[in-house]
Automatic annotation (TrEMBL):
SUPFAM superfamilies: Cytochrome c (SSF46626)
InterPro entries found in the cross-reference section: Cyt_c-like_dom_sf
Organism: Vulgatibacter incomptus
Protein name in the entry: Cytochrome c domain-containing protein
Skewed-composition ranges (Low complexity): 127-136
Organism superkingdom: Bacteria
Molecular function per GO: electron transfer activity; heme binding
Region (Disordered): 119-157
Amino acid sequence: MRGKLLLIGLGAMLLLGLSALIALMGLQPGPEAGRAMPQGTTRADLPDPDGRGAELAARYCRSCHAVPLPSLHTPEEWPAVVEEMRGRMISRVMAPLPTPSIAEHHELVAYFQRYGRAPADRDAEPTETAVAPEADAPAKDDGAPAPRPGEGDVAGN
């Protein structure tokens, strides 16, 4: 009888350990893990710091980490990032956290998308006011003739 209880106890501990391992695997960092979260970033560092988006970012993001600069991700990436963070808040992985309402969630996504990094700048460092360039912006004309193919390389040749 004692052997059965010991076996059941060991089995339960093994099952509990495997469950914890599987749960922790779900918390593994994604492909953005190599990007450093700006340390010490505050609402004052954000674009439109007095606006509603910056207010919500400061209120909810600071619960766990520095306020992220919108240029940390592209506009296309922000919805998934905000959804993941909201999911973590709701799941209370660490501790009970204030969680944005659905309306606030949409406001946060819109704010981060408005000031998000331009897709062409994917590997650039985050900046305070990175905004996607206008597609219809006129080309700069300084009056100089355009270089022919093979001329005007980076070295100035």
